[in-house]
Specification:
The chain is α/β, with parallel strands linked by helices. The chain folds into 3 domains: about 200 residues, Rossmann fold; about 90 residues, Rossmann fold; about 140 residues, Rossmann fold, CATH 3.40.50. Helix content is about 45%, strand content about 15%. The protein has a 6-stranded parallel sheet with strand order 3-2-1-4-5-6, sandwiched between helices. Helix 4 packs parallel to helix 5, helix 8 packs across helix 10 and helix 10 runs antiparallel to helix 11. It is elongated and about 75 Å long. It starts with a strand and ends with a strand. The model has no long low-confidence stretch (mean pLDDT about 95).
């Protein structure tokens, strides 16, 4: 089976590589010629555990190819996945220009039946826009070519994306065509052989499922952060509260961990897009607006704790940041709490030294020399007035606290992910604050 994947970001590259691993002939397409050149030379643009090895293996086997040109692929491809970016506009709506550019290119070049599948996270109604766009281009050419459009939202978690794709808990496909359904069943059969569920829906429902899932998870996080803030005020222990409510089978324990806010490429963007979709249809998503407000506030909580410790103005303090990515096992800093924290600290003219196992190159790309870069957590802690732990990487879990304390100017730890033991840290002589 021959397929094309347009877009080589997290979704496109993981999707294409995993299909190739199952024996599908995959061509990944991107307009970024430098990225394509790097991929052809085995240079992976993102950090994702297990991905680099699979890319190199399947490229060597000839099942995975990279190109910057889509039209030459359309005569042989049975399915084209659209996995291009849908960044938020200023009003929070999803920017569909790249999705519709792909649709135009397909309409300008197809000569036989093809199935167009939206893998990008797109608002309800996007598949209909794709269909209109392709038909407009076919009409301009004066030709009639059959094609179908389907929605196949992704549910990959950064840091475990390969595993999520290879062993999915569900595969959602929205289509109104039996032919499209048969093609998608054939394509996903190797992944569902162990009875992982394929859920077929109408197209608008499939488009909504992705947004609704991410909005629900974001809601759980913000709800728990709100509870954590109240626990601090009334003297309750949020970890005990989390375990107490998480043991309720109707609730469960996932996404109930309080912290310094969610980030990444999905939750912030998708919550905004769903709020905007509602507004376009004259409805207000009151709960999701509150979710977003709580999350923005939560990213400032540790800064407010620093103000409580040092006073409102604490200029030129030395602050160490442990963790830059929005979560472990990724170098993704999109909407990361660390970015908000760095901005707040820079406004105080603080000296900031950062360490992250994989995200330092991304931080350098974003911030340049605005911060100092450490070689490890101990280097970051040198002469620090406070350490802020923002990303719960495994290597941060058991530092040598005696070494950390000796190297610091003031022994202050602010734990944004609640991974340390208060009693232990206080026994070591640290001032310890958490969420």
């Amino acid at each position: 089976m021959n397929i094309a994947i347009v877009g080589t970001g997290y979704v496109g590259l993981v999707t294409g590589t995993c299909f190739a691993e199952m024996g599908v002939n995959v061509a990944c397409v991107d307009i970024d010629k430098e990225k394509i050149s790097n991929l052809n030379n085995g240079i992976i643009p993102i950090y994702e555990p297990g991905l680099e090895e699979l890319v190199k293996k399947n490229t060597a086997a000839g099942r995975l190819k990279f190109t910057d040109k889509l039209p030459p692929l359309l005569d042989n491809a049975e399915v084209v996945f659209c996995a291009v970016g849908t960044p938020p506009d200023e009003d929070g709506s999803a920017d569909l220009r790249y999705v519709l550019d792909v649709a135009r290119t397909i309409g300008q070049n197809i000569n036989k039946y093809i199935l167009i599948v939206t893998k990008s996270t797109v608002p309800v109604g996007t598949a209909a826009k794709i269909k209109v766009t392709v038909n407009e281009e076919l009409n301009k050419r004066g030709v009639s070519v059959n094609f179908d459009v389907a929605s196949n939202p992704e549910f990959l978690k950064e840091g475990s994306a390969v595993k999520d794709f290879m062993t999915p808990d569900r595969v959602v496909v929205g289509t109104d065509s039996d032919k499209a359904k048969d093609l998608m069943e054939k394509l996903y059969k190797p992944f569902t052989i162990n009875h992982y569920r394929m859920i077929f829906t109408d197209i608008p429902s499939a488009e909504m499922i992705k947004y609704a899932a991410n909005a629900m998870l974001a809601t759980r996080i913000s709800f728990m952060n709100d509870i954590a803030n109240l626990c601090r005020i009334v003297g309750a222990n949020v970890d005990m509260v989390r375990r107490g409510i998480g043991s309720d089978s109707r609730i469960g324990s996932k996404f109930l961990y309080p912290g310094c806010g969610y980030g990444g490429s999905c939750f912030p963007k998708d919550v905004k897009a769903l709020i905007n979709t509602a507004a376009q249809n004259e409805y207000t998503m009151k709960v999701l607006k509150a979710v977003e407000e709580v999350n923005m506030y939560q990213k400032t909580v540790l800064f407010k704790r620093l103000q409580n410790i040092f006073g409102k103005d604490f200029q030129e303090k030395n602050i160490a940041l442990w963790g830059l990515s929005f979560k472990p096992e990724t170098d993704d800093m999109r909407e990361a709490p660390a970015l908000v924290m760095i901005d707040l600290l820079l406004n105080q003219k603080c000296n900031i030294k950062v360490y992250d196992p994989v995200a330092i190159p991304e931080c350098k790309r974003r911030l340049g020399n605005k911060v100092q870069y450490a070689k490890d957590i101990y280097d970051a802690a040198e002469n620090a007035d406070a350490i802020l732990m923002l990303t719960e990487w495994k290597e941060f879990r058991m530092p040598d606290w005696k070494t950390v304390k000796l190297s610091m100017k003031q022994p202050i730890i602010l734990d944004g992910r609640n991974i340390y033991d208060r009693t232990e840290l206080q026994a070591e002589g640290f001032v310890y604050e958490n969420i």
